[in-house]
Amino acid sequence: MPARLLITCPDRPGVVAAVAGFLFERGANVVASDQHSTDPAGGTFFMRMEFTLPAGTDEDFERDFAGAVAERFDMEWRFWPAGRRKRVAILVSREEHCLLDLLWRHRRGELDVDIPMVISNHPDAAEDVAAFGVEYVEVPTPKGGKAAAEAAMLERLAGQADLVVLARYMQVLTADFLARVGAPVLNIHHSFLPAFAGADPYARALERGVKIIGATAHYATEELDAGPIVEQDVVRVTHRQDVAALARLGADIERVVLARAVRWHVEDRVLVHEGRTVVFG
């Protein structure tokens, strides 16, 4: 059975040996291993391992690993049987480019996940989502109705998602929602922030003569657009492009950056520590 193990702990001698020895004693075969230390002398150590386990040995893995290794090295860790597909729920408003790209990649087998539902505060993408065989849940957010809308979304999402993706969902989620949703929330936006926040960022970027269009995928936190960054990318632009061209290039790069971030998350390649990420590519 294929599985993955992610570890964060104080760096000290013997960590790798202890993990490798534990896996060896259980007949595991390590097929990939990545590690990083912020400082070998008293820093923080990060590790990601992929391995196979003999059939049936995963049932007690977490209990045994906690007692034999994790407690001894003061580890934060998580274990995931790679054969168990993560469930990814998608939230969207009217801009559908990121949503449809994720659905397309899922249909092509590029994202090894289940998508139980798409939730939107508008009806615009209902027909497109239905064509992919995914449930579409419309939860309007009228003025003064944010609390009720979030309560409705939490009810639908309860126990149904291992990751929530904001694929251009244009409502600010409250701290209460983020605390209760029970899964990491991954967001995508243009990388003009904080300089060009709000409406018409590409028009204001053109006025300032920007030379780079970018996108940022990050985990959502209480602090708006300031969560740990998972992926970013840019494309160069010139004075020849108008606002529509800048927006089109921005949408293109948002699609790619979000897809990478989702894939890295579901493949357990991302570790978050003190507001920053370690991403094992």
Specify the structural class. alpha/beta
**How much strand content do the residues show?**
25-35%
The helix content, as a percent range, equals: 25-40%
| Radius of gyration, in angstroms, nearest whole number | 21 Å
First-residue to last-residue Cα separation: 22 Å
Average pLDDT, to the nearest integer? 95
Uncertain regions spanning at least 5 consecutive residues: none
Total helical segments: 8
Label the overall shape.
Answer: globular
Describe this structure in words.
The structure is a single chain. The protein has 8 helices and 14 strands. With 281 residues, it is an alpha/beta fold. Strands 5, 6, 7, 8, 9, 10, 11 and 12 form an 8-stranded mixed sheet that branches. It has a 4-stranded antiparallel sheet with strand order 2-3-1-4, covered by helices on one side. Helix 3 (97-107) packs across helix 8 (243-266). The longest helix is centred in the last third of the chain and has 24 residues, at 243-266. The model has no long low-confidence stretch (mean pLDDT 95).
